[in-house]
UniProtKB/TrEMBL annotation:
It comes from the Bacteria. It is an enzyme of class 2 (transferase). This is protein acetyllysine N-acetyltransferase. It holds the Pfam family SIR2. Its EC number is 2.3.1.286. Zn(2+) binds at C86, C89, C136, C139. InterPro entries: DHS-like_NAD/FAD-binding_dom, NAD-dep_sirtuin_deacylases, Sirtuin, Sirtuin_cat_small_dom_sf, Ssirtuin_cat_dom. Keywords: Metal-binding, NAD, Transferase, Zinc. The lineage of its organism: Bacteria, Pseudomonadati, Pseudomonadota, Gammaproteobacteria, Oceanospirillales.
């Protein structure tokens, strides 16, 4: 089955049918994201932070796996998928609580099976017209995952916090990203303009290739784990 197009912010906000389809699919697919475990690359980055080599981690991921791995200085640039927020009164609640309410309201959807898709979605196509959406318990406004959808913008406080961290940094390392989304690429451009080292570790090309001072096209986990071991060894030899 062909992958579904990303949800557009404007469509989510303006169309009840889009929200029905989104939440029905998420009711089935989000368990995969909720149950995801941090990998070796996440743990290596957390170790580098604890060793004092990472001052700020800025991630475009919304799965909170960096925090689960032990990273503390994290800016979730695109938000966090485990929270929902009211678009009217800013009420917030944990997403699993909202899903529990929608499961109670839509028992016929709970048992449906579908393959998992990115970002907590599911490859489910059916008649969504009967699906009941759980609205804000405070004001009945639209609840939306606290993440940046396509067509939305990164909240100013997150962007400014990342810019402040960048201004205090000696170098920037982009890990496992193509940097095709401008919200991340902008920081690489700023680093280049400042003249500080800018490196990339990924398997493929990036939007910032022409700006890089160092580039490694290699698997993330072995390289980062070797960096942790090497830096520990260097510390012991001092």
């Amino acid at each position: 089955m062909e992958a579904a197009a990303p949800v557009q912010h404007g469509d989510f906000m303006s169309s009840y049918h889009v929200r029905q389809r989104y939440w029905a699919r998420a009711l089935i697919g989000f368990s995969a994201m909720r149950e995801a475990q941090a990998g070796g690359a996440h743990r290596a980055l957390a170790a580098l932070e604890s060793q004092g080599y990472i001052q700020q981690l800025v991630t475009q991921n919304v799965d909170r796996l960096h925090q689960r791995a032990g990273s503390r200085r994290v800016i979730d640039l695109h938000g966090r998928a485990d929270m929902v927020k009211c678009m009217v009164c800013d009420y917030q609640m944990m997403r699993h609580a909202m899903h529990a309410e929608m499961a109670r309201m839509n028992p016929s959807f709970v048992g449906l099976q579908a393959g998992h898709a990115p970002d907590g979605d599911a490859d489910l196509e059916t008649d969504f017209s009967s699906f009941r959406i759980f609205d804000c318990p405070r004001c009945s406004g639209i609840l939306k995952p606290d993440v940046v959808f396509y067509g939305d913008v990164v909240p100013a406080e997150r962007r400014l916090a990342a810019q402040v961290a960048l201004a205090e940094s000696d170098a920037v390392l982009a890990v496992g990203t193509s940097l095709m989304v401008f919200s991340g690429y902008r920081f690489c451009r700023t680093a280049h303009d400042r003249g500080i080292p800018l490196a990339s570790l990924s398997l493929g090309v990036t939007r910032a290739d022409a700006l890089l001072t160092h580039q490694w096209r290699a698997p993330l986990t072995p390289v980062l784990e070797q960096a942790v071991r090497s830096l520990k060894g260097a510390e012991r030899s001092l």
